[in-house]
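Support request, priority: normal
Reporter: lab tech (M.K.)
Component: structure prediction queue

Hi team, I submitted a job for Site-specific integrase from Natrinema zhouii yesterday, and the status page still shows it as pending. I've pasted the exact input below so you can check whether something in the sequence is tripping the parser. The sequence length should be 62 residues. Please let me know if I need to resubmit or if it's stuck on your end.
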Amino acid sequence: MDRRTDLAEETIESYSYKLTRFLKWCEGEGLDNLNGLSGRDILEFKQYREEDLNPVSLQGTT
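Reply from support: The job had stalled in the queue. We restarted it manually and it finished. Here are the results:
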């Protein structure tokens, strides 16, 4: 497989993982409609992630 193809697949998998975690968090917070998402919600999600992960894992997630 071409390196660019591999990279693209890994990128898609990474985005999918991050999006799935975010959507599960939204569901747990009762956020059913992303149109109602506020800056405060995003901050709370970032704080939630910081509690779960070490600083190296959080690089590039802002």
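Residues 16 and 59 are 17 Å apart (CA to CA). The chain has one domain: 3-58. Let us know if anything else looks off. Ticket resolved.
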